[in-house]
Amino acid sequence: xxxxxxxxFKYTLRQKEAAALLADPKTRYVLLYGGARSAKTFxxxxxxxxxxxxxPKSLHLIARATNxxxxxxxxxxxxxxxxxxxxSDLDNRKDAMTYYKSSPRHIExxxxxxxxxxGIDDQKATDKILGYEFTTFLLDEVSEIHYETYRKVRTRxxxxxxxxxTGILTMxxxxxxxxxxxxxxxxxxxxxxxxxxxxxxxxxxxxxxADNLENLPKEFLDELNDLPEQDKERFLFGRFSDNVMGxxxxxxxxxxxxxxxxxTEVKADKEHYVYAVFDLGxxxxxxxxxxxxxxxxxxxxxxxxxxxxxxxxAVQEIIKKGHKITGVYLPHDAANxxxxxxxxxxxxxxxxxxxxxxxxRFWVLQLKKASxxxxxxxxxxRFRYCHFKIPECQAGIDALKAYxxxxxxxxxxxxxxxxxDWSSHGxxxxxxxxxxxxYIHPPVKEEEPRDPSKIYVKDLFKRxxxx
Length: 467
Hints:
Number of domains: 2
CATH superfamily of the largest domain: P-loop containing nucleotide triphosphate hydrolases
Helix content: 25-40%
Largest sheet: 8 strands, mixed
Distance between the termini: 99 Å
CATH class of the largest domain: Alpha Beta
Number of strands: 19
Shape: globular
């Protein structure tokens, strides 16, 4: 599968290793991870084009988390560069390739093969694109892509032709808790926490800037060497980290572990009601916790997060798992009306509940709008009450571990707003749960014991003290 037109781009030794992994009959999925500008995505795009040219009428997918990212970073920028450096004959032959910039964006070759480009965490794009079956998919920068989305894309790797079906993933490493690390490095299924049934199907390769020196400016590595240590580990050496800089709940989670509040021994209290608390992902990821509110304890019984669900479908999943919920808490944006129906999420869910049998009905409460900062401080304060059932809540625990503030290295400070990534949805729902808990069990101010030998200022303002 070598191209005769690669006169400007130098094919590196590490890229040859990647090609060998992809050619291995046992391998179906390959993760290419490492530092910045190591040519991971460049190589992967080139590989997808070669497969499209080799197999007539084959369909392929190149995706990132959002439409903006795939359009700007790949379709308009990297794709033309790959074609110019590696496939100059296609660039000159108008009948060989046609660009389609309307949705869904794609390029079509003269052999009727097509490569689609999509923002895969976008509901409309997902609905359009995943109606096809593909020979190859490339998920670029999977640190920004949800695990459920990856699982859904995998099911579409099923086009009927003679080509080997191949999935390629690329990323700059984040933490060892990310699902890609669990699958490709630990060889563990992230949700069930079990060893993969066919580990040989999953391969990984570290590709760093030092492996791509032939195609980089000489001063680029010097720039990476000047980065702070945390960034250098990721962008120069391509290493996964056990720590998250700016982690919001790290201290609270460690304390919960030490006190055995994250455990398989955590059980539901049969004397208390069960609630579901949501973060609404309209056209995005929806996350929810199933929990109980006791006077001095919050029991988290279950957690889940899935893309492109309606609120009714999410509640149905909770009911199917056997949870009998008494109430549902929704964030303030549940008051927004659907453009097509004119009905709010709150009203829609209330109507759904009224149609259920009496023993399954629940009330719906919409939380008041509050600042994210205030909600996080409240959650930190009440984290000492939280108990998590494992393994049902493990994915939610992973989200809380990864939830972090952006670090301003120049000032040595954290930002006031958390980073909006895959961990945000579950962490937002957790914050809402502890806000709801505060409504049911408002905090009681514990007063220090009074010293009878002292006069307290507040006693001076009691009725009768001015007589």
